[in-house]
Design goal:
10 strands; 10-stranded mixed beta sheet; single chain; alpha/beta
Length: 315
């Protein structure tokens, strides 16, 4: 696999200075199974509590909270938090932006909101379960495979609930980078109504990422036991967009991916694209780091383009 040198360097740095991932082993086996539990046909109904609105940078900003549909989260994580940025002139579309791995701050996604607002698109920036103010503990948050599985399940259900809640305000979409793109693809794949999807470096499943990507070097293999990495890949591969029949709106998805991505192997994005054959894929000669550093603006354009495709189809 031709991996961008920056991704190789980042992987070495991660192995040498960062805490081992899954150092607590597998954790509660029932929670590991959270990944494969049946998805509810109808998203959870939520009634967010909204704070005071403030206007700046062409947006009306409101913070909101709601009770997570995932009751198995730690008590400190059950209150979902988000920021809703709406164009001053009103919006006819809203995208829910999901977190990448380790993105405890909302700032990177908040910076996208004014630029999307210029295009008439509102943004809902969701704080990931177990991240930021929803952290159950200090230090390394994800210590077991069970916690990772529960987090993934929770963010998909929270994103679906938010999309259903905001639907009265116009077209709805979902987007993310890396892990956020994977959870966005999963959430979008099981929505009961058409949604736009603008995805940067998506995988169809977390399994190939943790087994075949360079992040595998950060896994505490000893804590996972014999053949730990293969077992981890198999367990996480049980949740995949490929499990779900392609929704009709998958043809409106716009995907940006890197041919030399060391973290999200190009093959897992190719598998997603093959499953959604009418989706548009824009390949870049880039790695994982250079995708988000130099192509964030193109991700924003992918979100806009997906809404345009959806709007043309729905009239």
């Amino acid at each position: 696999m031709d991996i961008h040198p920056i991704d190789r360097f980042a992987a070495v740095l991660q192995r040498s200075v960062a805490a081992r991932v899954f150092e607590g082993g597998w954790g509660d086996p029932d929670l590991v199974g959270a990944l494969t539990a049946d998805v509810l046909e109808t998203p959870a109904t939520i009634a967010p509590v909204l704070g005071a609105s403030r206007t700046t940078r062409g947006c009306r900003w409101v913070e909101g909270t709601f009770e997570s549909p995932e009751w198995r989260l730690p008590e400190s994580s059950r209150t979902a938090r988000f920021v809703w940025a709406r164009p001053e002139g009103g919006e006819d579309a809203t995208v829910v932006l999901l977190s990448a791995w380790g993105e405890h701050s909302l700032v990177p996604r908040l910076r996208m909101a004014p630029r999307l607002a210029e295009r008439g698109i509102g943004s809902i920036i969701l704080e990931n379960p177990l991240y930021g103010s929803r952290r159950p503990r200090s230090g390394q948050v994800i210590t077991t495979v069970a916690e990772f599985a529960l987090m993934g399940r929770a963010v998909v259900e929270e994103a679906r609930a938010l999309m259903a809640w905001v639907q009265p305000h116009g077209l709805v979409g979902v987007g993310g980078f890396s892990m956020g793109a994977n959870t966005a693809a999963l959430a979008g794949a099981v929505m009961p109504f058409p949604v736009a999807m603008g995805l940067l470096a998506p995988s169809h499943s977390p399994g190939p990422v943790w087994r075949d990507g360079v992040i595998s070097g950060a896994v505490d293999i000893e804590a996972l036991g014999d053949e730990g990495l293969d077992r981890l890949g198999d367990a996480l591969s049980s949740v995949s967009v490929l499990r779900f029949p392609p929704p009709d709106h998958a043809k409106h998805a716009v995907i940006i991916a890197g041919r030399r991505d060391g973290y999200v192997p190009a093959s897992t994005t190719e598998d997603l694209a093959a499953h959604w054959p009418e989706a548009e894929v824009r390949w870049k000669d880039a790695g994982h780091g250079t995708l988000i550093w130099f192509h964030r603006g193109e991700w924003l354009e992918a979100i806009v383009a997906s809404f345009e495709r959806l709007r043309a189809a729905t009239g």
